[in-house]
Amino acid sequence: MASYRFGLKDVFHIGFIAFALVMSGLLVDRYYLRGGEDTLEVPAERLGKVESESNWYGIYMRDKKIGYSQSTTTNLDSQLVCTDRTYLEFTMVGRRQAINSYSRAVVDSRMNLQSFIFTLSGQDTDFGVRGRVDGEELALTITMAGESRGEIIELDEPIQLPNTVQLLLEEKGFEPGAKYSTQVFDPSSMKNVPLEIEVVGRESIEFRGTPTEVTHVRQNMGGLGVDSYFDSEGNLLVERSGMGYRLVLEDESTAAVGDWATQGTDIQKLVAVVPDVSLADARRLARLRIELSGIGEDTLVLRGGPQQYEKPILDVTIQPPAPPGPADTLPTSVRDASLAPGSFVQSEHPRLLAVASQIIDLQASDVDKIRGILIWLEANIAKKPTFSIPNTLEVLERRSGDCNEFAVLFASLARAAGIPTRIAMGLVYVEDAFYYHAWCECWLNDWIPVDPVFGQFPADATHLRFIAGDMDRQVEILPLVGSLGIRVLDSSEGLESVR
């Protein structure tokens, strides 16, 4: 009996591509299911029914082939070894990108995770994570920019692989109308993401030019929707998302071949949001009032700082920064979240502090500190489209990057200077459209936008913030891609920059 090759891993390929499309970032493409009150349990004897096999898939965006993936499951009687190799090649902001990722996970007879490895390599990044379960702890070794660090995560329940869901659904028979939910643990951001699964029903699709009866399964992970189609033997044939993404079952010789050299479409442009009217001299706009459509509000940060929001109207008004008040007036939640180091914003690392000590006068005002950091970034960090997992150490080493890298390094330096700073993610207007972008916000009696790529302090009103925090929240912006619409209601110039 064939095991259902559930398309959960392909949600990660979409996340993998989507971060490239959104902001050149990356979501680690393997998640691990973590138990909860609605845990999907698998009997121990099910491991013996899992067949060793290898599947190849072609990866497409808008009918352009951009990569392939090989997934292999090996049954070793008492253990199951799951590996995934993915290759992507595409044009982004006029620059060719070639990315390789590899993941390998070992589970025991009850499908509980024992260990895993994930690596990502490309022109701009060399990232790796190793993990091993030891009792009720997950011990991690994270390697960035040639430097490794350890981290321990306490486990309430055993961690399980997506195969847990595959096997349970096989047991239950993919009954139309069935719904399941669980939590997904992301080792890159160290947080859980909700996963909902619905068996929509049986229908017919065209596969390799032939009408084929399939079972349609819909997945929603953190707001990102994916539609999967399985044949009667439980093989995943096709996966689709709203971004024009498709993953298609192919043989090895077909999957691994792509017309990479002639791929002319810049995929960054595929997800741009074109408003109903053009905005002249966008960098001087002090106010922008727009109507948003196709937007959910559950996790978005649409209010606060320069933004006011009353559905569906977003009003952005940029004011000159005011001197900060006494330190004890800063809200505790703001201080904790925006001064502490994080996995990506390594503001207390000795290499970062050495740079900060050379460029920041701790006796200066916060306004002057911000101005000094922007001047140093402009002189020392080259602007280059980059596909990476942005982190402080790698940016310091490579001395180049795009908005993600600039935002991470600015936030690290600003926090090191004692300025509460968070990373903002959303859209910015450039030439003829709004593009997904990252910048920073500094607390000066309110959140003031600072764009280290544009060198703007404060940043102009076309910066539309949807997410704020650290880089691990990037995943929350993915549901907007391909669904967001903008109608311009009013705008005015007059931006006064202190830089």
Strand order of the largest sheet: 9-8-7-6-5-4-3-2-16-15-14-13-12-11-1-10
Shape designation: globular
Low-confidence stretches: 1-48
Which sheet architecture does the biggest sheet show?
A: 16 strands, antiparallel
Strand segment count: 26
Helix content: 10-25%
Distance between the termini: 67 Å
Gyration radius from CA atoms, angstroms: 23 Å
Number of helical regions: 9
Strand residue content: 35-45%
Overall structural class, as computed from helix and strand content, comes to alpha+beta
Structurally, the number of domains stands at 2
| Average pLDDT reading | 79
How is the quaternary structure best described?
Answer: single chain
List keywords for this structure.
499 residues; alpha+beta; C8orf32 fold; 16-stranded antiparallel beta sheet; 9 helices; 26 strands; disordered N terminus
What does this structure look like?
The chain is of the alpha+beta class. Helix content is about 20%, strand content about 40%. It folds into 2 domains: about 10-260, no CATH class; about 270-495, Roll (C8orf32 fold), CATH 3.10.620.30. The strands form 4 sheets. Strands 9-8-7-6-5-4-3-2-16-15-14-13-12-11-1-10 form a 16-stranded antiparallel beta sheet. A hairpin with a 2-residue loop joins strand 12 and strand 13.
